[in-house]
Amino acid sequence: MTTPSYDVVGIGNALVDVLSHEDDAFLDTHDLTKGSMALVEDDRVEELYRAMAHRTEMSGGSAANTLVGVASFGGRAAYIGRVHDDELGTVFAHDLSSLDVAFTSPRATSGPATGRCLIVVTPDAQRTMSTYLGASSLLGPDHVDLDLVRDSQVTFLEGYLFDRDDAKAAYRVATAAAHEAGREVALTLSDGFCVERHRDDFLALIDGGVDILFANTDEITRLYQVDDVEDAVAKVRGRCKIACVTKGRHGSVVVAGDTTHHVAAHEVPKRVDTTGAGDLYASGFLYGYTQGMGLDRCGRLGSVAAAAVLGHTGARPGLSLAQLLHLVDA
Description:
This protein is of the alpha/beta class.
């Protein structure tokens, strides 16, 4: 088997993030469920966009955030996603390139505009998202660069993209290509409501071809329809090679076969915004994993990476994550 050119290639919704700090009354006024991700159409996204008082715009999307984190650690990262040939599509592509993430997916010249995710951050650091998928939702099997998948050690799949049959087909094609090339596949469940919509498809994908699973306590308990996270961990054990379950302030659990690694959260002075914490946990873990580190150290890297975004607004670290590598041995 040849040495891959990339450590991780991610496939997901290519979106531009729009963030605003608001109070809980804003959520009530606009009928938003705290901590959730809701899919919205053109009119709704424009209504919310106009209502957000102080907007900060940056390229985003869950898998893209993870790949930026991998690159920030010093890993070799690439991304596959669908944007339109418009202003936001240009911004998205330029941003990834500037952050050392390879992005060569052709842009759509017809159909909906580049997607956006409106993120409302409340004083308790919770984020509530309203996502207009736009062009990103039209990714299908023909848009997956299978040569890039075969040339990457791990293919990372974003659960948010699961809302269309074409995307599910794209994931199946990518998973098959990765495994045929002797590579591995990782999946993040992304959101509890996403799990509710696609439980059966997620279970089939996990049992049939996912090597590394990322989920938080809400997602994993919804997936296995249990109330207790320990019951969910027991159910996922053996379903895939590795399962990483994040538990917020209580750290994470990394399950592999009969072994269990309990990983403490990395402390931050003040939590400002939880946006992207799960994405960055995955980046730290995957960077460590593709560099041949032990699972406990991979989990600690995940905690350090997640903490790097908790103290400020936005889903991207404000510094080079490579500067934080020494913390996993502290």
